[in-house]
Amino acid sequence: MPNDAKAVELPKELEEHLESYVAAFNSGDAESVDSHYTDAGIIVWEKGNPVSGEQRHAAIKEFLSLTEPHIETDVREAYVTGDTALLVVDWTMEINAESGEGRESLRGVGLDVLRKQANGSWLYAVDDPFGEEPRD
């Protein structure tokens, strides 16, 4: 059986999803950020602690309001099969420092699983921003 699987260029619909997510995240709009997830979608913003549903929404709202983040992303790899996509995403973020004094920088490599919806749009099923170690 031939193996036709390969990494792909980021499909336009996935690129649009990511751009929309980043814009919502950077604007601090928790409702809009949360709308980028399937109903059962999970975030793993704290290692070993996946949350979904109302807990996901509350975590997004709290993080955005406390940290006033600014994120930038760069897709390292994209894999698509049928209605499922895996994105490997390098990201950097500036947030309010916990001390309340200035800003601090974070970076990571996200492993994101998305599902294609009936209308052709893509939504996060799994959002794990610390899925892999960043490159030096």
From TrEMBL:
Residues 16-123 form the DUF4440 domain. SUPFAM superfamilies: NTF2-like. InterPro entries: DUF4440, NTF2-like_dom_sf. Pfam families: DUF4440. It comes from the Bacteria. This is DUF4440 domain-containing protein. It comes from Streptomyces cadmiisoli.
